[in-house]
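User: Could you check the structure of this?
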Amino acid sequence: MSRWQLQEAKQQFSRVVELARTEGPQIVTRHGNEVVVIVDVQEYRRLRGQDGDFKSFLLGPPYADVELPIERESDPGAEVEL
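Assistant: Sure, the predicted structure tokens are below.
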């Protein structure tokens, strides 16, 4: 992550944006204090959980990248007379 003073970031805004897209988040400071971070829109959406459309969200499984241990009981249950 690179750090930019506000004045420098304003003067080189196109460069700051390009670096955010290609190299990652860019921090902007004012009077030595970090005030904003410029990030690529895909990274922003990923962080906000907005990657993909709503339909994909509804149809997709939660935690698709997590292996869930699912086991079934071998007991078939009680016998019922009908």
